[in-house]
Batch of 3 targets.
Target 1
Amino acid sequence: MAAANSDMRLVVAGAGGRMGRALVHAMAATRGVRLAGAVEALDSAVIGRDAGELAGLGRNGVEVVSDVAPLLKQADGLIEFTLPAVTPALAELTAAAGIVHVIGTTGHSAEEEAVIAKAANRARIVKSGNMSLGVNLLAALVKRAARTLGDDYDVEILEMHHNKKIDAPSGTALMLGRAAAAGRGIDLDRYAVRGRDGMTGPRRAGDIGFAALRGGTVVGEHSVIFAGPAERIELTHRAEDRMIFARGALRAALWARGKKPGLYSMADVLGLADI
């Protein structure tokens, strides 16, 4: 691994996707980091392409490849926005290398989460449903609001994303739901309602509802609604550019570089964990 005062060498997994290209672009404008590799699935149409060209920067000499393992031997960290099923294998590789692993992928199963947690015994993993400063601050505010307002206020979470997104509710919506549940001291899995249809009956007290909208090219919109007696409080975040997620992921990687192995969140990175 490189000395701490040199540029952090980062590999981008999912380099051909929207977020992968944004990461490559953001890296070129960020001091202290350097693109050390770009990876895509074996059947991807961008294998062999120049990562800089894909990101709209012009050639940077980093070719998109399918085999990540050799790259990690010469890297300080990996940033991935891929598919849930891909993350566990990547986590095992970063654990073996003892490097930083920033996970922006969402929609993991309980089994996949367990593999990631085990890998964090050796890797420095930062995992978040959303990498932006604004959303993580929103989560802290939601937790505090839920604690203050109590059960008299019904919690509903509404999110909208582009028509290519494959998981619902979004990782960010679930993160906000967990924040609300933590504020109330309850288990989200017991109180989450992920869809309503037909004769559902009256709303159960304490439930945290989720609604997911998909359409167009929406980057990401999330609202947490606290509906109480004769008043409603709404906390909203609207993402206008994927670069906010890319910059957050780079900040997470740089923060984790000097940390002990473990599983961290963006709340840790931003100092919001205790709010």
Note: The chain has a mean pLDDT of 94.
Target 2
Amino acid sequence: MKVLAFDTSSKALSLAILEDKQVLAETTINIKKNHSITLMPAIDFLMASLDWTPKDLDRIVVAEGPGSYTGLRIAVATAKTLAHTLNIELVGMSSLLSLVPRQQGGFLVPLMDARRNNVYAGFYENAKPVMPEAHLSFAEVLEKVTDAEQVTFVGEVGPFVEQIQEQLPQASYQETLPNAENLALWAWDKKADSLHDFVPNYLKRVEAEENWLKNHSESGAPYIKRL
């Protein structure tokens, strides 16, 4: 099976092309760029490097969220367009799982910085989810894992190192970037998603919707997005 995987859910852009679980080409760009401009040229470059055409692909794997609202919309729109045009499988995987090193076991908590000391967090024991992913304050994350004998925080851990050291001195941490190869391998045996129903997994409402609901909670009127 020939797979194209990509993740644009954060500042970093990660791409990988695999055949039969072997990575053939990959790239990661960890600078602030507009993914809508860089994603397709990066895909074209990797495909051309392998002398492949889009018709060679059997599956698209995409990071479905959580993460940047704009980044997720770009990734999902691109993935759905490619899968529909090529008539191939589309599989969505958690952006948080993209941060989890495949060779590392134990209790892992992947983090994405959601600003104001909030995070998107996952909770995995040997790559199996033990609690639902959620948008939480970092204090809530620490509370959820306070009784763990050993826990490793991965992903965007930089802003939270001091709190980890103060509250959980027994914990370890490792800064990791999104890894599209990991994403593809985690998804290898997963059933394809419904192309029609596939949407980003934001985990948190956009700020405009939250403000609207706050001001209209008593009216009972539905929130309607203008198209």
Note: The first strand starts at residue 2 and ends at 7.
Target 3
Amino acid sequence: MANLTQSGKDESPILVTGAAGFIGFHVSQRLLQAGRKVVGVDSINNYYDPSLKEARLDILKNDPSFTFVKQDLADRPATAELFAQYRFSRVIHLAAQAGVRYSIENPHAYIDANLQGFTNILEGCRHNGCGHLLYASSSSVYGANTKLPFSVHDNVDHPISLYAATKKANELMAHTYSHLYRLPTTGLRFFTVYGPWGRPDMAMFLFAKAITEGRPIKLFNQGNMQRDFTYIDDIAEAIFRLTDRPPQGNPNWSGAEPDSATSLAPWKVYNIGNNNPEQLLDVVALLEKEFGKPAQRELLPMQPGDVPATYADIEDLARDIGFRPKTSIADGIARFAAWYRDYHKH
């Protein structure tokens, strides 16, 4: 149960899983800035260079309100023990095996992390009085949908990668727990997150690395791609505002005409995107300007599991928490490039 002070402020720690990851690091920082206590969990796996994860953690560990636990959430007894020890009133579950292309090479990693790990989180929340579970979904759940912008009210039954299928499965699993146990859950469909401390396997980092090292940038679909690039600070702020707004359930929901974004149960999903798709070639041009070097472009066909465009409808998010992302692509890339140069001493 929540540990409330006389002022009514919740003093119990918030669990952030994947705290050494890109989004988890920034969300933890935002919570700590607001005076919240954070327990960060991460397995520090080697999907990408663990030294980047360790560097993020070193920053978080400077705050006395941050506690780190190294743990694999697929370990059922250890995860049950973690929840029993802290009885978190809020859980922000960002740990996952990420990446569309890697899911084609290594499908079992996605089952272990994204399905088994998520089941253990749901069970921990159910048995220990959690008042709100927020969890990472993805814009990839829109799969074969072509109607733009992507709306949370649209049906998403046609994923085109196993990664996307596991994220859709998370939304369905969360709904079951919301329905059966009245556990409030909020799914966060992220759209192409970028910024300082970003993941090395994501486009912005890959492009910057190629430009600074004088190697070709791989541009799929002959470079004719649009992505709704969303700056990390905007993502973290949206999650922060949603943390203490557990869904109540939609009394107008009807099984005769089911709304894919809400439920009679305390369950909801949101798009968290910039609401402004960018041409990939324009992003490359901005990076060229920031690094003062031309990019070598290698135009390639579409990759399996990829989609030509993403574009987030964020009206529900704006209505419910009064927030719209504010960071332009030019400002965001400038901040990312400044961090990249400093981190890599380019």
Note: Residues 289 and 334 are 9 Å apart (CA to CA).
